[in-house]
Amino acid sequence: MVYYQKMTPEGYKEIEDEIAKLKKDRPRRIKILQQARALGDLSENTEYTEAKRDLGHLQSRLRYLGKQLKYAEVIEAKNDGKVNMGSSVVLKFEDDDETEEYKIVGRMEADLAKGKIAFDSPLGQAIMKKSAGETGVVEAPAGSYSVKIVEVK
Q: Which Gene3D superfamilies match (predicted)?
């Protein structure tokens, strides 16, 4: 059984862009490896070891990202007034007068520092398929709390 990873079109594009950037950098890293190899004894050649390791990391990252694209299920945002993948949502947490805006994304795209939360995270699950004005209960390891949906964009 193949497990497809849900992601937004923007997340898919970010992976494509990173792959293009890494492929562009690969010839430079190969050249560094060749230059280090030409320095002589490989058993004591730190430059060669580092260049080989760096190229290996680049190749590994390319394989990983390639698999992410291969098994991606791109979900287009629905504009039905409910919280869906790709939606931006303004939330008000209980005991807090401030509102916060988040974008609902796939698991691989989630980055709280950038305001992106996964649809299947505890917060994401609590608000998915709800409309503005509704309240969701987040079941977190530290305890439950309520969050009100102020706006769905």
A: Transcription elongation factor, GreA/GreB, C-terminal domain, Transcription elongation factor, GreA/GreB, N-terminal domain
